[in-house]
């Protein structure tokens, strides 16, 4: 049986990508700048235009978006400041109005986790932790075929696990001592600036580390160790089969520093939990968003989607919106 064709959207603070996905494979994709300063309506207009430009006739649309998604209402909460007016936005409802398709939205890193767990580096494994390291540090948990969202949609939010390497350091969330305060890309660049007086971005810090700059080497190693300790805390709690790490700041040097710290902080009874790079690259969020849309359709219509191993997880209430021809979709 041919898997349904689904549209997927990955909304970011600077760019929005859209794709047509079938059975976990991205068939075609496009992207445009996110009109972040113009507000939520303009962002959704852009997303809908991108989906329409792909042609074909998808049966649903899945969206990975910045911010937390309330599992009861489906509204974006704890919204990113990079998109004006993003708080309390009904993303699937807005796209249903524009496209006439049922839709589902989830946090972008949870979308990354779902994509990697079902179709990427965690494929076929019962419990997978997904971690994305970029301008922030995010995470997700996929267990027994279900993406865990938690009471407020914050399940797996790894960036705000306290670690000793971040003691006293302010986190963007407003607290102190969280791993994001030392392991995110801007935090690494800030640590390098503090040690050298040179204000450069993360790619330049990485370039200098590869050229032998001792400060660059040290700040990346420190960030990696902090990440490893945070990941070990989650591994000790969840006993995962694999930890998958992606994102623009997840450079090989960061992972190389994270692995020994991770292994040292894990309970010995867990053995060697593999900590591996993501397999889907920039498509992970799109693939995960498409998977979420298929699961939502299946839960609403009773039709079983042709997806990867594991039971189909029901969507959170009020996340799905709209209806496709011939489909009854739970709201």
TrEMBL record:
Annotated family: Belongs to the ROK (NagC/XylR) family.
Name of the molecule in the record: Glucokinase
Region (Disordered): 304-331
One Pfam family in the UniProt entry: ROK
A single GO molecular function term of this UniProt record: kinase activity
Native source organism of the sequence: Micromonospora siamensis
Cited Gene3D superfamilies: 3.30.420.40
Superkingdom per UniProt: Bacteria
Keyword flag Kinase: yes
Record key words, sorted: Kinase, Transferase
């Amino acid at each position: 049986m041919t898997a349904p064709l689904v549209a997927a959207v990955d909304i970011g603070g600077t760019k929005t990508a859209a794709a047509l996905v079938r059975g976990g494979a991205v068939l075609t994709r496009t992207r445009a700048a996110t009109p972040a300063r113009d507000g939520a309506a303009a962002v959704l207009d852009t997303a809908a235009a991108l989906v329409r430009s792909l042609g074909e006739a998808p049966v649903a649309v899945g969206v990975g978006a910045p911010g937390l998604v309330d599992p009861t209402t489906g509204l974006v909460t704890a919204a990113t400041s990079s998109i004006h007016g993003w708080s309390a936005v009904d993303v699937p409802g807005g796209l249903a109005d524009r496209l006439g398709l049922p839709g589902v939205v989830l946090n972008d890193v949870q979308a990354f986790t779902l994509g990697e767990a079902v179709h990427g580096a965690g494929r076929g494994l019962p419990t997978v932790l997904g971690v994305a390291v970029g301008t922030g540090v995010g995470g997700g948990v996929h267990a027994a075929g279900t993406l865990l969202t938690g009471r407020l949609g914050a399940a797996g939010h790894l960036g705000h696990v306290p670690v000793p390497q971040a003691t006293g350091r302010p986190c963007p969330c407003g607290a102190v001592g969280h791993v994001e305060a030392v392991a995110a890309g801007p935090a690494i660049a800030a640590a390098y600036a503090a040690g050298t007086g040179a204000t450069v971005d993360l790619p330049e810090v990485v370039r200098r580390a590869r050229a032998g700059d001792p400060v660059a080497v040290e700040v990346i190693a420190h960030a990696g160790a902090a990440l490893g300790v945070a990941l070990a805390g989650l591994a000790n709690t969840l006993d995962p089969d694999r930890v998958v790490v992606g994102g623009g700041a997840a450079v090989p040097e960061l992972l190389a520093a994270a692995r020994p710290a991770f292994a040292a902080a894990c309970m010995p009874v867990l053995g060697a939990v593999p900590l591996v790079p993501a397999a889907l690259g920039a498509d992970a969020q799109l693939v995960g968003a498409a998977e979420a849309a298929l699961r939502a359709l299946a839960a609403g219509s009773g039709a079983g989607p042709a997806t990867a191993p594991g039971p189909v997880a029901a969507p959170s209430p009020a996340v799905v919106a709209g209806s496709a021809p011939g489909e009854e979709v739970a709201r």
